[in-house]
Design a protein that fits this description.
With 198 residues, this protein is of the alpha+beta class. The protein has two domains: 65 residues, Alpha-Beta Complex (Type Iii Antifreeze Protein Isoform Hplc 12), CATH 3.90.1210.10; 87 residues. The chain is built from two helices and nine strands. The termini are far apart. It holds the Pfam family SAF.
């Protein structure tokens, strides 16, 4: 006499549940993988007004980040050569609006200066620093005699010249005095003094 194998309903239900649970876990892992993205992160601190270089950037992989503005890794080259519009600390995620072209406000002008060593403070002068540009002794005239001073704001941090004997710095000044300052700069008659914090 042949015995019929008995099916256990409990084992059947348990098997179905395990299969469903496995499918759900696989779907969750796949979804998480699909939502991860490689984005740009700052490898070095870039102060507001400074130019972003390739060495300042690196990449990292993030999961889903709703509401966080990021730049994808394949867009990193678009940041190089742009200027930081806000401070970008190392390790931060630069958003697409964090860099761009520096805008000079109406009524102002941006002026590039070459200052000899000793003509500006030795302490760091980050963009946004308020300074005086002072005419130093030279050929006298009524408009730019020694001691004339002009309000200015540092637009880009000073960089040492290639010969190591001076500094290059961009400043923002009122448009009405830009010509006088350019003339003073041409004959090396400008010194920079840091103003007190407001």
């Amino acid at each position: 006499m042949q015995l019929r194998a008995r099916r256990s309903n409990r084992l059947i239900v348990l098997g179905v549940l395990c299969a469903c649970l496995g499918a759900l876990i696989m779907a969750w892992v796949w979804t998480g993988t699909q939502e991860s993205q490689t984005v740009v992160v700052m490898a070095a601190h870039v102060a507001r007004g400074e130019q972003v270089e390739a060495a300042d950037l690196t990449t990292t992989t993030l999961g889903r980040a709703d509401g966080v503005a990021v730049v994808s890794a394949d867009q990193a080259s678009a940041l190089v050569g742009q200027y930081a519009l806000v401070d970008l600390p190392a390790g931060s995620l630069p958003g697409p609006d964090a860099v761009g072209v520096l805008v000079v406000p109406a009524g102002h002008a941006q002026l590039g200066l070459r200052l000899a060593a000793g003509r500006l403070p030795s302490q760091p002068l980050p963009p946004g620093t308020r300074v005086w540009l002072i005419a130093v002794p030279g050929a006298m005239d009524a408009n730019t005699g020694p001691g004339a001073q002009y309000e200015a704001v540092v637009a880009s941090a000073p960089l040492v010249t290639t010969d190591g004997n001076g500094w290059l710095v961009d400043v923002q000044v009122e448009e009405s005095v830009a010509g006088q300052l350019a003339a003073l700069a041409a004959v090396d008659r400008i010194a920079m003094v840091r103003r007190g914090d407001a």
